[in-house]
Structures are given as structure tokens and as C-alpha cells.
Amino acid sequence: MMEHPGFGAQLASLLDHRGLGVQELADRAGLAVDEVRAVLAGESPGEKPLRRLASALGFHAVDLFILARLAVPDDMAPLDATAANWVTSTVTDAVRLPAAGRRELLRLIRSLPQEERRSSFAPKPLMPLDGSPGAWVIRMLQYRNLNWMGMAKTLAFVTPTYLSAATYGVIGSGRKELTPRLVTDFAALLGINASELATLTGVPLREMPPSPSPEAVDTAALLWEARRLSADQARYVSELAGSLRSRPRGTPLL
Predict the structure, then answer these.
(1) Cα(237)–Cα(88) distance, integer angstroms
(2) Residue 167's pLDDT band (boundaries 50, 70, 90)?
(3) 233 neighbors 112 (Cβ within 8 angstroms)
(4) Could you say which of 55, 72, 89 is where a domain stops?
(5) C-alpha closest to that of 17 among 179, 166, 204
(6) 254 lies in a domain?
(7) CA distances from 1 to 101, 130, 171, 207 (A)
(8) Is 114 found in the same domain as 41?
(9) For residues 221-235, b (16+ Cβ closer than 10 Å) or e, as one string?
């Protein structure tokens, strides 16, 4: 089982991969250069600096919180864990739509009113809880409101990866190592550059992977935006996605 290298080491690897200097990162993030150097040296970043670093790096802040092994704030978590099944069915229907249909679904999700959070999001524990690369990426997918079955279905529909639902729990526990194929496919769903995810996880890619398919890019966006939906809203979107598949091309969603 790989030992967690520490967030500072991961950040340093990412900066090296991008050819980005410490001063430039500090300027982009609106932080003092000494603050960034302290994080690179192993100091745990606070919530505000980590949010700023995420914005400066073009990452979703929740992913950096997971990499830094810090508690994820409620405002970064899915609104309603019970929406998970509907979100999965939306994605599996959407991936079989033409690009225009996927864009319509994305616009619809973004247009729905924001409902109040009624409970804290508590992702399924990864047992044994560890700091393996598999745990990081599985936790990131959980914060896209995907459970084990959701991961299995979504990966199977969108990427070449076809695994049982239980296998994702095994990956999350560190008992199954990440492969270059898994890193590439996970990156597509997370909306993260595959070579950068490989750098962060320490899994070398044998060759530069091709760009994600348009379906994968749209799926990553749908998953991210659908985090803000309640179960009722997610069901509404899912039902529309299913009906859209059977409509003639060019028929508007609404």
C-alpha cells in the first residue's frame, strides 16, 4: 500500500509538471509566497488558502481538500445523497444523446432553483480508511454523488473501464492498485487532465493518452453540475433525459 506523500509533495509535483513557479502560483492565488512555500514544505493549508490555490490551479476545491486529507466543507458537498441513483441514470441516458441533447440537459440542470441543504453529506467510508491513490480518486467520485454502482455504470457507459460495483470499494480501500487505464478513465469523469492526475497519484502513464471523448467531457460537466440537485430535481432531470432519447432529433427538451 502506497504511503501518502503529503499534499506539499503532490503540489510540488504538479507545479513541476506544469513548469509553474512558486511566485507565479502565489500571485495567481493572492497569497504570500511564504504561505505557498510553507505548504510545499509540508504545512497543512487552511481552508481559505486551499480554496485560493484550487482556483489558481484550475481545480475544483473539493478535490484539493481530499488530496490534503482535510474535512470537506458542506458547501462543496452534494446537496442530497439520495439523488445519486437519478444522477447515474441521467448520465447513462445522456451519453447516448447527440451533443445538442447533452447541452440541453446541462442548461436545464443549471437553470433549476437552488434548494436548501437539509442534511450533511456523509460519503460511504472507505474500509480500511487509508491514504492510497485509489482512496483519493474514489472519494472524489463520491463527491460527484456517485456510489459504487454509480461508478460502475458511469465508467462502463463512458469509458473502456468495465468493473463490478464492489471493485470500486476495493480500489478505495487500497487493496487494488490504480493502473494507467484507470487513472485515464477516472480523470475523464473528474474533469482532470489525465497526465496531471497521474502526477498526483504517482501512477506513470506509458504514453500520453488521447483527449477525452466529447461524451466524457460532457459527462464530467453533468456530474459536477448535478451535485447541486435535490432528489426530486434529479429525478425530474433523469425522466427528461430518458424521454429525450426517444424523441426525434431536433425536438427541444422543454
Answers:
(1) 11
(2) very high
(3) yes
(4) 72
(5) 204
(6) no
(7) 43, 9, 11, 24
(8) no
(9) bbbbbbbbbbbebbb
